[in-house]
Design goal:
Helix content is 31%, strand content 21%. It is α/β, with parallel strands linked by helices. It has a 7-stranded mixed beta sheet. The protein has a 6-stranded mixed beta sheet with strand order 14-13-12-15-16-17. The protein binds zinc ion. Zinc ion binds next to loops.
Length: 407
């Protein structure tokens, strides 16, 4: 297998989480009687450009099935984040009713709705039809498509290029990162800006967030690597911010290589920080697996011990993170009896691999578990507030990553 960016032969393993089913292939009761497809969940790091990437595996429609697509507007924290961003960027780039904003993977219009409110022309590009429909209902122009070089070439025929291109949590999910970068270059106006947000590999390594590894997540990115990729495609990163979202993300600001934007000191400062954290040293990457194993084992030990004492354990959030952890740890419904999720499309189904039933939150109130494990730890504050009533019967929250925490 070769590096998806620079084609160097990949020989260094970053993490091996054995086999697991696609994280969104929830099962019906009937499907529990059938065989389930498991794919290897293995990451490599490129010795040359340090792009951490998923091993090739046989692609299946199952991995990209859209039945359980995530609606961004379901999370209040995320909406707040989007609103703040729009305020900030409108002022920073001096966007007006003459500007053009394009968001890639615009989901249900959770972000573009705030541009619409400011009368700034915007367009969403979104491959999944049910979220695209939800965006259109908000009055947001949305094209149902994957963002590729071919799409960009066709789009710009007779149309205005973008003054601002936004991509939140999409860069890591594209299978062909080179094609994506080339498409960005094509769609961007001469003096336009691209902002991309993606989980920061440095945080993933620092906090051993191995449960953010799943099949749909192709690349795990540092500023160092994104900088090299952009440079290769005639783009230049001129500013970067560290954000607390998704366990620690980066927001990079990029422009055409020869555009006027001045490179700010934030870029060199963060590149240096990554170097200090060992991100330019292969041995740092090779320590990751042992840390992941320790977290997995501590969590498993906790569950076994509590179960032995007759405690009741449930969970909240049927998210990809939970599935990675559960399947790597081999946890089944005898240890965690059910998981609650707000999405009605998941309720009544079973988690892939672990077969833990997904139920409505009401079940927590009826069952009164001693422990509620929170899988989406990146929004744990929001969930703890929402479920604060478990304290009435002495219930406690459990978070497994980056280390076992009981609150
Ligand atoms: Zn490479």
């Amino acid at each position: 297998m070769k590096c998806r960016f620079c084609s160097t032969e990949l020989t260094s393993k970053f993490a091996d989480l054995a086999n697991s089913p696609a994280s969104n292939s929830f099962l019906t009761e009937e499907q529990l009687n059938k065989a389930e497809v498991f794919y290897p969940l293995r990451l490599f790091v490129c010795d040359k450009c340090y792009l951490v990437q998923i091993d090739e595996y046989k692609k299946s429609d199952e991995i990209f099935n859209n039945d359980y697509v995530y609606f961004s507007s379901f999370s209040r924290t995320w909406l707040e984040h989007a609103k703040k961003y729009v305020e900030m960027i409108t002022e920073k780039l001096d966007l007006t009713s003459q500007s053009k904003v394009i968001e890639i993977a615009s989901n249900d219009g959770y972000l573009l709705q705030y541009f619409l409110g400011k009368q700034i022309p915007c367009l969403g590009i979104e491959p999944s039809s049910n979220t695209a429909d939800a965006a259109r209902e908000k009055g947001i122009e949305t094209i149902e498509a994957f963002f590729t070089e071919e799409f960009a070439e066709n789009y710009i025929q007779g149309r205005k290029k973008a003054d601002l291109i936004i991509g939140n949590n999409v860069l890591a999910h594209v299978p062909d990162i080179n094609d994506f970068a080339a498409a960005l270059k094509i769609m961007l106006n001469d003096q336009g800006t691209i902002t991309l947000e993606f989980p920061h590999l440095m945080q993933l390594m620092e906090y051993s967030q191995f449960d953010t590894i799943y099949h749909e997540h192709f690349s795990y990115l540092s500023l160092h690597t994104v900088n090299i990729i952009f440079d290769h495609f005639g783009l230049r990163i001129y500013d970067v911010e560290e954000l607390p979202t998704h366990g620690g993300s980066l927001r990079v600001y990029a422009c055409h290589t020869h555009a006027d934007q001045q490179r700010l000191s934030s870029v060199d400062r963060l590149l240096e920080k990554e170097k200090q954290h060992g991100l330019l040293d292969l041995s740092t990457y090779q320590c990751f697996q042992a840390k992941a194993n320790q977290i997995k084992n501590n969590f498993l030990f906790f569950l076994l011990e509590q179960k032995h004492q007759g405690k009741k354990i449930a969970a909240y959030g049927a998210a990809a993170k939970g599935n990675t952890l559960l399947n790597y740890a081999g946890i089944k419904p005898d240890l965690i009896e059910f998981v609650c999720d707000a999405a009605p499309s998941k309720q009544g189904k079973f988690l892939p691999g672990s077969h833990i039933p997904v139920v409505n939150e009401r079940k927590i109130k009826e069952y009164k578990p001693d422990y509620v494990v929170i899988f989406p730890w990146n929004i744990k504050e929001e969930i703890m507030n929402q479920l604060s009533y478990i304290k009435d019967w002495g219930g406690q929250f459990v978070v497994a990553v980056p280390e076992l925490e009981i609150v």
